[in-house]
């Protein structure tokens, strides 16, 4: 089994990704073709490399099945799981966010959102509000939300597919006021918190890039190590492009570190991805 590398004595070890998050990443990477189920034995074998035991795998799969993320299937006569039907569009939109995040330019339109939910449906109100935050919206006022206009197709598709469009109204608009948009975005988004998360990503992943580019990992375990590092890398990264709305760089501080973090992710993904896929393919073909 591939072991975790210890942190430096004066550094706090970042929280490890939760087991169900690793499993979602695994399916997003290797089970996207039609009928692309993975045998349970293969899931256990692959997650074992990442330090997740069989009990943890089975518990997380059960949770994902209840949430409607995974379906039980038969894979070449073996018990297995596949991504639930209807999630293709969600994962395709995720591919764009994760691997090709867009950044708005000055002068691009803004997307405005407002919603009305009956008092008796507080859970729906909470779901809409939390989803807007997760998709990168900032709060102008408690009842008015804003995001760069390029998010419009993904946002409208998301709410429509979940039956929530009836509660929302969306508008596209240009900024026509005299206020400084740099000051506005600093109020509407929690940019220091986002910058802190990017900084943590860089702190955790830069040493990994240094070690791989220095050739520290070689030999028979190289591909297995690449699989673990790539699985964790993608799991840690994939939430950040959703929290980051892709604001124009002209409206951000000069030390804004999102671009550095994305470059780091891209280099590691290009380096580790092929090796990781070789390892995963060998396990999947060997088990199935």
Automatic annotation (TrEMBL):
Domain Transcriptional repressor PaaX-like central Cas2-like as annotated: residue spans: 106-184
InterPro entries documented for this protein: PaaX-like_central, PaaX-like_N, PaaX_C, PaaX_trns_reg, WH-like_DNA-bd_sf
Transcriptional repressor PaaX-like C-terminal domain location: 189-281
Gene3D superfamilies: 1.20.58.1460, 3.30.70.2650, Winged helix-like DNA-binding domain superfamily/Winged helix DNA-binding domain
Highest taxon of the lineage: Bacteria
Entry's transmembrane regions: none
Domain Transcriptional repressor PaaX-like N-terminal: 22-85
PANTHER family tied to this protein: PHENYLACETIC ACID REGULATOR-RELATED TRANSCRIPTIONAL REPRESSOR, TRANSCRIPTIONAL REPRESSOR PAAX
Protein name from the UniProt record: PaaX family transcriptional regulator C-terminal domain-containing protein
Organism name: Arthrobacter citreus
Source organism phylogeny: Bacteria, Bacillati, Actinomycetota, Actinomycetes, Micrococcales
